[in-house]
């Protein structure tokens, strides 16, 4: 049980680091990059995608693992006497509820970029970009909540689990 | 109450550290390779991209992650024992990173932005290489600062529980002793 608790703690740490990086990256993207390619589509998209030189990955490195790391951390806390379980459970639940939205956003913006690059950009796609930008801020707000829940899990990791019997 | 404020500041410091590190990693992964792929032309081309409604990232967050770490350190100092070294480490890294950014990396990238196309290309290339190297080192150090702050929170939570239990035991002992003393006095009278 001691080893399992240590592994759960490790995954909780990994998930927290991942969520922190995810949040920071998406805030940076929303503040400094998205305004660059979204201000005058499709020209601004074409201008942005010209000469891509990406040495490190961000989206593919972070996106698939954040929710998974939280889920593993939560699964490892099952049957452990730790106050972290409720917090990590809430965080994981929110992360997985947001998962379909993430997929939809990825597919939608990919479609807009492809349309711009292939010359099939339609005027109504400007509305799609506007909706996508608003939803981007929604997921940033949600990720902030998820990160705070992870930190509350770390804060309560050494506390005993709050069962109904213990509360009464 | 002050212990709760310390916990809150620790959490806030980690959130700001995370945003800072994530943003820097994004910059390193997605922006820098594009902006400095072929200086000075790539710098001029990148700076020519019009930004509609962009907001600042570097300035408000740059001193903030250090200041939040410092505030958490000051608030938690009285109760922190084993977590103190992690709190200090996180704050010192924050201070060092802020200082390096303000004194070296930010003026260097500004000079590249300002002078790209107007001075010798070799000079811009040399500056861009120096900046990229410095930025990568800074990113690694920042990640260490971020992880240190998470470790500090974890150890802090463990020892603040210990301190809480010890204080409760001491209070119980004091109460017992007081009751015994009052009882003795009553019996003697």
Written account of the structure:
The complex is a heterodimer of chains A (168) and B (189). Chain A has 168 residues and is mainly α. Chain A has helices spanning 2-38, 43-49, 59-76, 84-118, 125-155, 164-167. Chain B has 189 residues and is mainly alpha-helical. Chain B contains 5 helices and no strands. Chain A binds chain B through residues 9, 13, 16-17, 19-29, 31-33, 35-36, 38-40, 44, 47-48, 51-58, 61, 144, 147-148, 151-152, 154-159, and chain B through 7, 11, 14-15, 17-31, 33-34, 37-38, 42, 49-57, 146-147, 150, 153-154, 157-158, 161.
Provide the descriptors you would attach to this structure in a database record.
heterodimer; A: mainly alpha; 0% strand; B: mainly alpha; 5 helices; 85% helix
Gist of the model:
The complex is a heterodimer of chains A (168) and B (189). Chain A has helices spanning 2-38, 43-49, 59-76, 84-118, 125-155, 164-167.
Topology record:
The complex is a heterodimer of chains A (168) and B (189).
Chain A: H1 2-38, H2 43-49, H3 59-76, H4 84-118, H5 125-155, H6 164-167
Chain B: H1 2-35, H2 41-47, H3 58-76, H4 84-115, H5 121-188
Helix pairs in contact in B: 1-3, 1-5, 3-4, 4-5
Uncertain runs of chain B are none
Strand % of chain B is under 5%
Per DSSP, the total helix count of chain A is 6
Q: Helical residue percent of chain A? A: over 70%
Arithmetic mean of pLDDT of chain A: 88
Uncertain spans of chain A: none
Q: Note the main sheet of chain A.
A: none
């Amino acid at each position: 049980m001691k080893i399992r608790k240590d592994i759960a703690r490790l995954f909780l740490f990994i998930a927290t680091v991942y969520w922190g990086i995810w949040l920071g990256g998406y805030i940076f993207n929303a503040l400094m990059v998205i305004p660059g390619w979204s201000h005058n589509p499709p020209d601004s998209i074409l201008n942005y995608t010209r000469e891509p030189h990406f040495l490190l990955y961000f989206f593919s490195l972070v996106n698939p693992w954040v929710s998974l790391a939280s889920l593993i951390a939560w699964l490892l806390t099952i049957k452990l006497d730790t106050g972290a379980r409720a917090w990590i459970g809430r965080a994981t639940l929110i992360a997985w509820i947001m998962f379909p939205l993430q997929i939809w956003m990825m597919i939608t913006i990919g479609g807009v970029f492809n349309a711009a690059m292939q010359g099939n950009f339609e005027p109504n796609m400007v509305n799609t970009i506007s909706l996508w930008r608003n939803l981007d801020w929604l997921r940033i707000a949600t990720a902030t909540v998820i990160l705070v829940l992870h930190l509350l899990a770390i804060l309560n990791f050494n506390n005993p689990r709050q069962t109904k019997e213990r509360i009464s | 109450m002050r212990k709760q404020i310390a916990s809150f500041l620790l959490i806030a410091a980690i959130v700001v550290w995370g945003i800072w590190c994530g943003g820097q990693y994004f910059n390193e992964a997605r922006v820098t390779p594009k902006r400095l792929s072929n200086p000075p032309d790539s710098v001029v081309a990148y700076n020519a991209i019009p930004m509609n409604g962009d907001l600042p990232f570097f300035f408000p967050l740059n001193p903030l992650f250090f200041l939040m770490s410092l505030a958490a350190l000051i608030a938690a100092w009285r109760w922190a024992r084993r977590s103190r070294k992690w709190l200090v480490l996180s704050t010192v890294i924050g201070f060092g990173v802020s200082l390096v950014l303000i004194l070296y990396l930010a003026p260097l990238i500004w000079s590249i932005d300002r002078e790209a196309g107007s001075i010798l290309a070799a000079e811009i290339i040399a500056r861009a290489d120096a900046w990229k190297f410095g930025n990568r080192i800074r990113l690694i150090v920042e990640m260490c600062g971020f992880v240190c702050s998470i470790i500090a929170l974890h150890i802090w939570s463990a020892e603040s529980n210990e301190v809480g239990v010890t204080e409760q035991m001491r209070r119980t002992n004091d109460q017992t002793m007081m009751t015994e003393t009052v009882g003795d006095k009553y019996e003697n009278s």
